[in-house]
Amino acid sequence: NAPIFPQVIQQLQSDVLKEHNVQFCSWSPFDWRQLHRDCLHHQIPIPSVAGQWDLQVLFRRQQQHTQNMSLANALRSVDLTFEGKRHSGIDDAINTARLVPYCFAEVQRP
Fold first, then answer.
1. Fewer Cβ atoms within 10 Å of its own Cβ: the N or the C terminal residue of the chain?
2. Contacts 24+ apart (CB under 8 A), 34-43
């Protein structure tokens, strides 16, 4: 049985956020807004993180694109292919992580 949302947030707060400086990263602001909505719905505090990064915006700026791209299009623009199933939480997270170097000037698109 998987733990329910409030239990996961409590564990995140006690095991991770209490000891580490954490940045919340997502591809677009949707996930950050959804986390806020879920916390409000469950009447629990929003996790205290050091900051929130919209990697979609960082990628666009760093790679000098004129508009935000979907995760799949961003991967294609740097000659990577989407691995796994689109809109699967874990697959989206893995593919987003593959783009992090391209968001912070370490790697330029081909």
1. N
2. 38/5, 39/9, 42/5, 42/6, 42/9
Place of tokens 């009447």: 43
Instruction: Give Cα 78 distance to the centre of its chain.
Output: 18
Structure tokens given for 110: 């081909």
Q: What is the pLDDT of residues 18-34, one digit of tens each?
A: 889 999 999 999 999 99
Q: How high does pLDDT run on average in the chain?
A: 92
39-61 pLDDT tens trace: 999 999 999 888 899 999 999 99
- From residue 106, give the alpha-carbon distance in Å to each of 54, 69, 102: 17, 19, 6
Tokens of 46: 């929003």
